[in-house]
Fold:
Amino acid sequence: MFDSKMYQEVFSSLHASEDTLDQVMKKAVRTGKMRRRLFPAFVVLLTLAISGAVFSGSARKSHGAWVFHGSRKEIEKMGVYCPEQLGPYRIDEQSADSFHMVSAGSGSLKAFFRPDYTWMSVSYEKNSRQSLSLSLGTMDHPLWADASGYDLENDIWNGRLYPETLTWYDEAQGSVSYVDHITEHTYQNCTIYLYDRITEYAGSADPAPPLTDYRDACAVWTDPEIGVWFGISPFCAVWEMDGDSYTYIREDEGVTKEEMLGYVKEIIDGCR
Structure:
């Protein structure tokens, strides 16, 4: 499943060349199109070509993409009315982001001005260190499969076919994250994939957490009635900064599959 937080973390360190940025900004100002999203809208700038591996574990294509500040109204235009609350998590309308994509081989200028495909994400906050990230987009363009990590030919989530590709390492934290215990459920004609996202910490992590691994349930599904795909994943900080060092703060065991399935059903019911 696509994780919008990981997307932003990965690509916040990437930049196009200074000449490219200068040309883009000058052209945007001349056409007046920058005005539509100039203030908090310009969230993250990505390189001309972005690895499709971030969108889909088995993908090998490259895409141009930009991330803008979005709105709940844009989500509602897709026919999705997000619940105000999911369990103890309340929607944060200010967190909405709009992801603009173009097909492989297209430049980022096209992604900025005339994207081939746009999808959204919004956060649900429990407190300052716990949240849920909900991603969604229409299924009216083939790029939806790259954004959500689906295999169009087999009509199945790629994580089900290739779970080993959804593994990533964090050398700074001394951790490895992967998916496990994938289960399939049906609700209101929607096929829901639930899985555990497991993070293990090596001995190099400082301070060493008291648990051997951390588990949080995630979900991804498609809703054929409204033609929209969804993905939801939790975030829970493990450490917080304390002066020049980090202090372990996570005490809970994370979101369970039972909890996550309940949140998914609330979202599906809200779209009916």
The CA atoms of residues 98 and 198 lie 27 Å apart.
